[in-house]
Amino acid sequence: MATTTAAVTLTSDLLSDAMSVTASTTCMKAGTTADGLDQLEYAVVEIATGDEYDLICSTPTASKASKLYVKNHSIDETYFVAITQNAQAIGKLYGGDWMFIPADFHDAAGDIAITSNGGTNKIEYALFHEGTVLTAT
Amino acid sequence: MATTTATITLSSTDLLSDELALTTTATLTDAGNATGITSIGGLGRTNFTNNPIQSKVIYRSDDATTDGANKVYLKNLSTVATQFFTVLIDQQEMGRLYAGDWCLFPWAATGGVKEVFTTTIGGTWVVGETFEFDGVLITASSTDVNVIAPQVNNAYYPNWTTTIANDDEVTFTARHSMDAGTVVTATADIVIVQTGGSDATAVVSAAAMGTATSSDILVVPSVVTTMDLEHMVFKGKA
Fold it and tell me: Closest to A83 (Cβ–Cβ): which among B6, B37, B106?
């Protein structure tokens, strides 16, 4: 099995004492402790302002432990991409922001969609998953 | 200016033909500028022990800025591999957070409209008559409506806030955005207990319906036994 680790560190000096929260997880297949996610889609795309696009083209197996990482590489702080799932707004990733979520692609409507705003946004994304439904040619 | 950062490291030595080592840091700012965020909803831990299974609202859209640069952190503290939290935004399932898993995502916090109505304290009141709303009972200490209205305004209601105008007009605003059906439904809950044939009134003189929020964050545990969720929200201005 493959071993992939996702770690996060959150820090701030906004409070009366320094805050530092860390978490680390080994990305496992759903419900297991010994079988890691072993498939990956990893890409960088440039998305022009305008239409909404599905970020993931294939359909990962539903109700599994897929993890999606998305980063907006824009350096203009006014640029952002709006992230939605089945028309439900999740939030906006501004230049430099990233997100890491469990993604349940329960059907085509559960795809993660993205809309570029402000200008062309360069987006890096990685989907760690345990199987996809490939589209036949 | 305070500095708040979020750093992610994704690493693997055997997933690809060469090592995967990705690290990036985001400085959390308000929307569309370089000003650091100024509000954090502290690190919290919520226990779920319910039979049958019940969802909980972890963050309400009303408590953050709509379309602000908000970020939400969630972690499943369970150590049992099969236990997961289903994460939802409003009615949309985002995904499953299995034991030990964490996530960080931007949050639109799309708010709704809080229901509001104004009632005018009028008629002839007798000392001792009561005004009851939202489970709060106010007993008139005077026959003067300009004294009773401040009594109504000064009380603390679990689901409403109040303001007063023109000495006798009390405006109630719901604490949370929601669609309560009709304004009539909400305002009909006012109960005035009259004595001695008085004609004490609290007539609704203005009202506006509310609408529900559409991006509250809910989680649902997968089992009825104890599960714990760690969570934090970073609130960025729009």
Answer: B106
Q: Tens digits of per-residue pLDDT, A72-106?
A: 999 998 999 999 998 899 999 999 999 999 987 76
CA-based nearest distance A94→chain B, Å: 7
Q: Fold for B41-111+214-235, please state it.
A: Jelly Rolls (2.60.120)
Give the pLDDT confidence of B62-105 residue by residue, as tens digits: 989 999 999 999 999 999 999 999 999 998 999 999 999 999 99
Residue B166 contacts A where some CB pair is shorter than 8 Å = no
* Tally of CA atoms within 13 A in the half-sphere of B121 that contains its CB: 30
**Are the CB atoms for B228 and B47 separated by under 8 Å?**
yes
CATH superfamily of A34-133: Jelly Rolls (2.60.120.10)
Please report, for chain B, the start and end positions of each structural domain, with discontinuous segments joined by +. Answer: 41-111+214-235, 116-208
CB contacts, 8 Å: A74 with chain B: none
Strand partners, B193: B130
What are the tens digits of pLDDT across the range B126-152? 999 999 999 999 999 999 999 999 999
Mutate to test the interface with B, among A70, A85, A93, A100 (most CBs of B within 10 A): A100
Q: Residue B160 contacts by C-beta under 8 Å, 6 or more apart in sequence?
A: B133, B134, B172, B173, B174, B175
ipTM of the complex, rounded to two decimals:
0.93
Q: Are A65 and B96 a contacting pair at CB < 8 A?
A: yes
